[in-house]
Target: tRNA N6-adenosine threonylcarbamoyltransferase
Amino acid sequence: MRVLGIETSCDDTGVAIFDSDLGLLAHRLYSQTALHAEYGGVVPELASRDHIRKTLPLIRLALQEAGCSPRDLHGIAYTAGPGLAGALLVGASLGRSLAAAWGVPAVGVHHMEGHLLSPMLEPDPPGFPFLALLVSGGHTLLADVQGLGRYTILGESVDDAVGEAFDKTAKLLGLGYPGGPAIAHAARTGVPGRFRFPRPMTDTKKNRGPGPGLDFSFSGLKTAVVTAVRGQAITPQTVADIALAFEEAAVDVLAIKCTRALAETGAQRLVVAGGVSANQRLRERLRGLCEELGMRVYFPRPEFSTDNGAMIAYAGYLRLRAGQREPMSFGARPRWRIEELPAADAG
Ligand code: KG4
Ligand code: ZN
Model:
């Protein structure tokens, strides 16, 4: 089965063609970073308009790269949510219209399910079940994954997502957008130990009660950075030192929660995906942790950590193969919990 995937949920236009026998045949990405940079963050209406301009030309390029024509496709997958409403509607309307014109089925993919399954595009992919840490600009989730659509959320952020904390901290430090790569870059020249930030909600005693102690909070970390910045001469070295202390704190929190969730679930595999999983410090830390525990950790290639069309083509292929179809009428779901997805047989 050959599936075209379209991702337009935020500020990246991603298009890819996945073939169940041959693997990934083509993937193209157009990043809107330059467009939004001067505003210090994503401007939703500009994002939608740019997706309108870029998606069809990218689909043409992807078809060329794959050496195939629309007649060779068996289905179209597009990101149906969660994300920016206008941006999602561009992908949904194009995906649904092309499917009708080309006489193939269409399926609307959950953006976080796309991230969740992205390590399966790599050689030696993880099998079910596994523990998943999904870390992006909009979500911080720990999930017990038993199969396709069989997801139980074990913990999530009660305030800012971890990627959002990277972005806000970078803005505070004058490092620009997107913040994650900028913080990671600045942290490379940081002096360890000059600043130390809290590890919010990692104290188990404070988490007793209704929750299992696997929820996250990142807004306090951002406030700690605001306090540190106040009263400092903001030299490039101070920025680097704060960036390093922030990155260490964020990575520590994620690693502590993963350790706890692995112990509680007895999971033997850890899957880490979403934009923040591109972070090298996080990768090294979780690799070390899993090595100590004698278990495997799986990441997408860094290019597929952040938003891309390949993960949507792949998730769409699994959903289409399981018989899912979108009716002719379609919508987009700016808010959509991954637990609401139907369970399906992933083969
Ligand atoms: O998955 P993604 O591309 O889009 C969403 O679904 O949100 O994730 C984007 C987030 C942004 O907050 C960005 O700052 C963060 O991922 N990010 C990183 C890195 N690369 C991207 N955070 C930390 N380190 C990185 N290297
Ligand atoms: Zn994403």
Summary: The mean pLDDT is 95.
